[in-house]
Specification:
EC number: 1.1.1.22
Pathway: Nucleotide-sugar biosynthesis; UDP-alpha-D-glucuronate biosynthesis; UDP-alpha-D-glucuronate from UDP-alpha-D-glucose: step 1/1
GO biological process, one term: polysaccharide biosynthetic process
Shape: globular
CATH superfamily of the largest domain: NAD(P)-binding Rossmann-like Domain
Strand content: 5-15%
Keywords: NAD, Oxidoreductase
CATH topology of the largest domain: Rossmann fold
Bound molecules: nicotinamide-adenine-dinucleotide
Strand order of the largest sheet: 3-2-1-4-5-6
Largest sheet: 6 strands, parallel
Structural class: alpha/beta
Oligomer: single chain
Number of domains: 2
Catalytic activity: UDP-alpha-D-glucose + 2 NAD(+) + H2O = UDP-alpha-D-glucuronate + 2 NADH + 3 H(+)
Length: 437
């Protein structure tokens, strides 16, 4: 199949490279000329484990190409995926669909022969109808079908998720889209991935319903952690005790500083707005959004409360800035609000992140960047673990404590056992655990 991916970001680049690896001919398009130049020169604009090798292999095999010129690629394509960003619209939280609509207009002018156009971006219910309308309006003679195929990959494990998904969801309104999309995903049948065909609006909603549910699950255990701190229970054991029930499941039950990233915050907000607009408000999601929003600053206050004496002018070390490990993505990372809260109290923030510091520099100000966890901790009033990178899982706690002015470890990911930290001479504060919380 000849596939075009419009948008070569986290989703477009990973999906494009994986489709190429399946043997399809893929052209990844992006309007960001720097990104395309870097890809053409053999570089990878994002950090995603394994992506460099996958891209290099498929470029060398002639299955994967990069361009800023959409027209030529689209006119030769069987299937065109739209994988552009759908950020929150400024002001009201609805999904900003301007990139999707622009892409639809550009695609419309380039279509030649029957083509399936697929929204892979996360888009609100009804966007497929609008994409169809735009293309028809721009090019009334075009032969096309518009399908929905939301992406469920997780950054940090994106290639594995794409190649071995729990399911592939495809929403179609026009039967002519079915066979080409079956062909696109046929290699996955070897991996026994269920392909769920449904209607387009249902498919669009499945993506939001999944993300909102996961965000709600995280928020549920986070609130349970707060209760644990008040009543002397251990949230780790509560999570294990409920997660072993198959109806609940143990995943996404790790208490922490609140969810962040490029998807959950904007998708929960967009779903909430869609539901309100259709007079079917989703109260659980509204509560999830509100609880998570206030939690991030509350984590900053938790650090401040744990520090003995005045905070103003003292250094606080942050380990991990990205919203989760194995990515350089800083979009809506909890570290942003935590740092703001610490800075508001007059603390000097010194941070270390294995991959995220370049991206962090574009969203954070007045932060000093360190070359290692120990360098960050040097002379600090507290060290705070914000992101559970592997590099922070086996720190020499004695060395860490010795480097600090006050040996206080605030572990917002519960990586360490309190007794282990205390044995190394640290004062330990975790999330939702008995004793000092
Ligand atoms: P991203 O910002 O990393 O990439 C989007 C790319 O699209 C950018 O490089 C941008 O330059 C390009 N672009 C925008 N308009 C274009 C146009 N008209 N023509 C060509 N290129 C254009 O975004 P992302 O993280 O890959 O997310 C893309 C979509 O996938 C979003 O809707 C997101 O919600 C969804 N999604 C993301 C993830 C994730 O983990 N990042 C997972 C599942 C779904």
């Amino acid at each position: 199949m000849r596939i075009v991916m419009i948008g070569s970001g986290y989703v477009g680049l990973v999906s494009g490279a994986c489709f190429a690896d399946f043997g399809h001919h893929v052209t990844c398009v992006d309007k960001d000329a720097n990104k395309i130049a870097r890809l053409r020169a053999g570089g990878i604009p994002i950090y995603e484990p394994g992506l460099d090798g996958l891209v290099a292999r498929n470029v060398a095999a002639g299955n994967l190409a990069f361009t800023t010129e959409l027209s030529e690629a689209v006119s030769a394509a069987d299937v065109v995926f739209i994988a552009v960003g759908t950020p929150s619209r400024r002001g009201d939280g609805h999904a900003d669909l301007s990139f999707v609509h622009d892409a639809a207009r550009e695609i419309a002018g380039a279509l030649s022969g029957f083509t399936v156009i697929v929204t892979k971006s996360t888009v609100p219910v009804g966007t497929g109808d609008e994409v169809e309308r735009i293309i028809h309006e721009c090019n009334p003679a075009a032969e096309f079908a518009v399908a929905s195929n939301p992406e469920f990959l997780r950054e940090g494990a994106a290639i594995e998720d794409f190649k071995r998904p729990d399911r592939v969801v495809i929403g179609i309104e026009d039967e002519r889209a079915r066979a080409p999309l079956e062909e696109v995903y046929r290699p996955l049948s070897l991996n026994k991935a269920p392909i769920v065909f449904t209607r387009r609006r249902t498919s669009e909603l499945i993506k939001y319903a999944a993300n909102a549910f996961l965000a709600m699950k995280i928020t549920y255990i986070n609130e349970m952690a707060d209760l644990c701190e008040q009543v002397g229970a251990d949230v780790q054991e509560v999570a294990r005790g409920i997660g072993l029930d198959n109806r609940i499941g143990g995943k996404f039950l790790h208490a922490g500083p609140g969810y962040g990233g490029s998807c959950f915050p904007k998708d929960t907000l967009a779903l909430m707005k869609t539901a309100q607009d259709h007079d079917a408000p989703l109260r659980l999601i509204e509560a999830t959004v509100a609880v998570n929003e206030q939690r991030k600053r509350a984590m900053g206050r938790k650090v401040l409360a744990a520090i003995e004496g005045p905070v103003r002018g003292r250094a606080v070390a942050l380990l991990g800035l990205t919203f989760k490990p194995n990515t350089d993505d800083m979009r809506d990372a909890p570290s942003i609000a935590i740092i703001q809260t610490l800075q508001d109290a007059g603390a000097k923030v010194r941070a270390y992140d294995p991959e995220g510091m370049e991206a962090a520099k574009t969203v954070l100000s007045d932060v000093e960047y360190a070359s290692s966890a120990y360098a960050a901790a040097d002379g600090a009033a507290a060290t705070v673990i914000v992101t559970e990178w592997d590099a922070f899982r086996a720190l020499d706690l004695t060395r860490l404590g010795a480097a600090m002015a006050d040996p206080l470890l605030v572990d917002l990911r519960n990586i360490y056992r309190p007794a282990q930290a205390e044995a190394a001479g640290l004062r330990y504060v975790g999330i939702g655990r008995p004793g000092k919380s």
